[in-house]
Aminotransferase class V-fold PLP-dependent enzyme (Promicromonospora alba), 427 residues
Amino acid sequence: VADVAPLRPVVGGATLVPLVDGSRVPYANLDVAASAPALQAVADRVTQVLPLYASVHRGAGYLSQVSTALYETARRTIGAFVGAREDDLTIITRNTTDSLNLLAGCVPAQPDGEPGRVLVLDVEHHANLLPWQRGTDATVLTGGATVAETLDQIREELSDAAAAERPFALLALTGASNVTGESLPVDEIVAIAHEYGARVVLDGAQLVPHRRISLETTGVDYLAFSGHKTYAPFGAGALVGRRDWLDAGTPYLAGGGAVRRVRVAGTEWHEGPARHEAGSPNVIGAVALAAACEELAALAPADVAAHENALRRRLVSGLEAIDRVEVVRVWADAVDPVGVVTFTVTGYDPGLVAAYLSAEHGIGVRDGRFCAHPLLGRLGFDAGAVRASVGVGTAGEEVERLIAAVGRLVADGPQAGYDVVDGLWVV
Ligand code: PMP
């Protein structure tokens, strides 16, 4: 795939990074699943709106009105990008973690006052696991070896709970795994969950940047995602979904902006997004995320999928052709995985592989257990693995560099000496 060009320019693509031999090479950023570099158009928009920055909502000055309009327009753009229904709320958060913690505070209690029940799989990122263990009653299901088996397990768990009159309020599921890029079929999941009265929240951190998802057409009830994985800078994310739980739930943050009226004797909280957005909001972050949504919306979804699929397929086939390399999979029959490929190299610690790729080849990847300890443990990768990930800004040549570099490691070993210092592999 050496001649595959990025679909859209991103910032930082031409950065030269130093290698141990003293030379410099263009940085190959194959860690976009952790944080994707901003699209050039996003950087341009931020530069354009920064001078217009002023306090929002209650400011009477002209620029305050402009800032307020920018913020509220960004909210609508972000919601529209994920197919928000007319009555859905789009709440601007810090990131996916924030969005899921917010929703966890809004899951209704059971009729007897016990916390609402949430069903979750062990494949999840900790951000979609730990919030449900706080304040809601989480059941963590060990997923099956195939998609079909996992869907059956989910159905059985939901149906047993409904029959026992302890129904689940919510099924919390990854839109795409941050370890393997795989996912469960959204339409089927929604149909199963709704049949047993459970709502569905998708952790869209790895889905939204790579595939178009519409709440309206899929029936997904809530979607959480992060700006910094969606080609915008850090600090803004979103929770989009059904209004009733959000309007009735505990305000996520207590403070100015979330209240209609405060008396010493008690507080009257807002409904709508403001209820959960106390404090001065991240206007520039929201505008940047909206700009990224506009840029992605201008691309044909099939083109994005084709670009990333070509790179992913090459990564998998190139890596699997190397002796001692194993690619991690969750579901043997998963369809249409996004551009995330996790692998191990027998005989080399994942931390050493990642340090070697950086120091000797200028390639950025991630190693470890990817905030998915239960999954890595179940699959037998407790010592961690290495993850390469691609997006619309990735060039085929970067993927070829990674495959060649891993091949060199297996054939010749690392050329520099590596050591662990404070838990990190360094030259
Ligand atoms: N879910 C998934 C699937 C992720 O990949 C990540 C980030 N690694 C998160 C949730 C958490 O995202 P954030 O750190 O932006 O809150």
About this structure: The domain at 43-297 is CATH 3.40.640.10 (Aspartate Aminotransferase; domain 2). The chain has a mean pLDDT of 96. The chain has two domains: 16-30+301-426, 43-297. DSSP finds twelve helices and 19 strands in the chain.
